[in-house]
Amino acid sequence: MRVNVDLLENLMTMVSELVLTRNQLLQILRSQKESEFAAPLQRLNHVTSELQEGVMKTRMQPIGNAWAKLPRLVRDLSHELGKKIDLQMLGADTELDRQVLELIKDPLTHMVRNSADHGLEVPADRLRAGKSETGRITLNAYHEGGHIIIEIQDDGKGLAIDRIKQKAIQNGMASEGELAAMSDQQIIQFIMKPGFSTAAKVTNVSGRGVGMDVVKTNIEKIGGTIEIKSQQGKGSTFVIKIPLTLAIVSALIVECAGERFAIPQISVVELVRAAADSEHTIERLKGTPVLRLRNRLLPLVSLQELLRLDDQEGGEKKTDETFIVVTQVGTYTFGIMVDRVFDTEEIVVKPVAPILRHIEMFSGNTILGDGSVIMILDPNGIASATGEMAMGETASKETTSVQATRQEDKMALLLFRAGAGAPKAVPLSLVARLEDVDLASVESSNGMPVVQYRGKLMPLVPIDPGFMIGQEGRQPVLVFADGDRSMGLIVDEIVDIVEERLVVQLTADRPGLMGSAIIAGKATDVIDAGFFLTQAYKDWFGSSSTDAYEEERALQRVLLVDDSPFFRNLLTPLLSVAGYDVTAVENANEALALCEAGEDFDVIVSDIEMPGMSGFDFAEAVRQGGTRWSGTPMVALSSHASPRDLDRGRQAGFTDYVAKFDRDALLYALQQTLSEQKGAA
To answer: Which spans in 140-278 are helix H?
Structure first.
């Protein structure tokens, strides 16, 4: 049965009107306490929703229809460009609205041409870079939360940041100074500007400077966003996020200066309430309002100022509290300041009247349940209208990243008192819990005080060997736990939790102490938790598998890879005190990512028993992959140290093999390995 498209369009329009009427009726029902209409209206609501879904399904078509011509296009391009190209299409049966499909057909075609021409290298270059001759372009489409995500990915050379910079300067889009202050992600955005092309010569495939700007415009026209990810030498990925249908969308209704607006939910990340009595307050940075949200500065846009609205309520309420709609457009996140937030509503999108079409802040209008007509805000338009702010955001991002790196150097430390002398400290990340033990419940086992804790016996270890445990009252205890074992360290009192950079200034000869550091303005003893753990369980360090941690030393950098957070936190202070600057990663893949990012280390310490890629596989990958680390010495950590394991470790490429529970041997092995390396150099 063939149905005319116009008939379907008309049906969709009628259902949209029905949805609006349903919204109005429900609004009336909300204002009535009890009404005989409640039950039939609820039924009408369900029927309307099902009808809407049914009609929308009739308009749905698999995205494969838009991809049908792409294999032919890629075949022709591979002949024309002298490249071998393999096109993979995943999720071709993902359905989306016919209208949307029509509008994305051309952008998709253009982007596949781009990947083939700009992204993929010629076979000879690919072989030189250690890749296969055949380049791969992958198209992937899938549903995610009421939207369609389309990814166009290639395994080519990635975007040439330097070429983009040159072209941006040449076209007068930015000065060298501005470019120097920008992140790679921001420089990549230039390829979306009109008239921008990095092609060396104009061909019938590329170089005309008409391209990504048109793609971006078309995608934004249908309320979508486009995001670019690129890695030099690895390839690029373009992620397009578009709504399922253009007719009915879910939107958040907000109010500003007495006017209501709708913001499409596709762009809303979260809502934040900023007020004097809340943890979130609005600050000003060079005159621009910003919000400090989870250690990040978020640039804010005042909807009232942007739309030049006069505050009908005299502006008194504004000082009270502000709601911030955190919005994301591509990779740019910003907050829109509004006075009130209502609920989300299914709205029918009506096109903007021609007289308002030039205002890019609006993408349409709709009729709410109470019959009032409101404008739908376009987050893409708002982002571009605050273009000057995007530059300001660069500066704030830079500040934040510096703050973040400084923050990372700091460590949360638990301060406590135990015995005479200076206050003591231990990294908070090692302490599982703080407990107050009833001394009457303390028993003795094997000459050691123990307490029944969570169904198991937990040994209690005093910091001062001469400490006599009392018979009554309560005793503060720091609980250290890993896997199914736990140990209680007896202390006199918990003082504080502070964030400080741990720099041990005096090393200690006393067992159980690492040394002294200035913490919270006082000389403090940093305890060696590992010493007390082995007092409770001799084989504590042989119990669980640990991932090698990556460590960087100030003079000699060490990378330690270890999947157990407990052991990472235990070894980090130990290695820091020994004079290394420690960087921790939890698996071999993260370590290899550091290698690709160009990080260099003097020695790599890796655990053997790790989920996923084991230490042996990691060592082989480093040694045989021809990576920049192929000459870096590697030390293996394992709870098994049999001769067979030692042989296997040497074959895999480890320079030395240390039993995990022998921490002195680890420090000695590092010292030996590094001095041998120096001697060899």
So the answer is: 161-170, 176-180, 184-188, 212-221
Which CATH number does 248-388 carry? Answer: 2.40.50.180
Per the model's pLDDT, the better-predicted residue between 200 and 359 turns out to be: 359
d(CA 416, CA 425): 6
Nearest alpha carbon to residue 464 among 445, 487, 490: 490
In CATH, what number does 5-56 get?
A: 1.10.287
| 248-388 and 410-536 in the same fold | yes
- Name the class of domain 410-536: mainly beta
Backbone angles phi, psi at 168, to 5 degrees: -65, -40
What are the domain boundaries of the chain?
5-56, 64-243, 248-388, 410-536, 544-680
Sheet containing 513-519, strands listed edge to edge, beginning at the edge strand earlier in sequence: 493-500, 411-417, 424-427, 522-527, 513-519, 506-507
- Comparing 424 with 209, which gets the higher pLDDT? 424
Q: Which residue has the tokens 């007896």?
A: 490
Where does 544-680 sit in CATH, by number?
A: 3.40.50.2300
Specify the range with the lowest mean pLDDT, choosing from 20-34, 201-215, 246-260, 480-494.
Answer: 201-215
The pTM of the full predicted model, rounded to 2 decimals, is: 0.48
DSSP assigned state of 351: P
Indicate the angle between helix axes 70-81 and 98-114, nearest 10 degrees: 10
Amino acid at 431: V
